[in-house]
Amino acid sequence: MLGAALHGFSRKGYDGTGLREIAEEAGVDPALISHQFGSKFALWKAVVDEIALRLAAARRSIEELHGGSGSTEERVREGLTRFITANCDIPELSKFLSDELSQPGERQEYILREIWEPYQDAMLPLLQEARADGLLRHDGSPELTLMMVMGAVMLPLLMMRRRGLSKRDEAELSRRLVSDVLPMVLAAA
What we know:
- By secondary structure, the protein is mainly α.
- It has 9 helices and no strands.
- GO terms for molecular function: DNA-binding transcription factor activity; transcription cis-regulatory region binding.
- It comes from Gluconacetobacter takamatsuzukensis.
């Protein structure tokens, strides 16, 4: 049900997606969704929680790079690679996030708290180290740098995926985003 809900919300947005449509795609009775989640908003929150859970392993792998062995440049490069790859690994994520983050309110706040802030908390120490070592291309805030990385990843994912991509094309897109976005951020890339 959560996969069908994510697919519906990412395709038509929260307001354009109905529980009946989600139930039909999931192959279940709409009453089951109502019984299990209680409301469309509760289902939506469960979808966000599932996304956060799916991203948690990548986030933890980024956190393991804090103060680890290897140069700051190597650890920052690896952290950004993991960040970009994790965003590519959930096909609906870029559309879902772009829709929800553009609408102020309770849903936006929930996504920021459950998805963005934990990721930001994982990446910022690495980007702060990079800035201190003069590795960032722009001497701006690490927070803005991370937002720029997210934008540089999300828009190509949105545009390319609307055409439909094979698994091979998805893997190539992920590889290209890593190879093309890192030099935008790191002076040494």
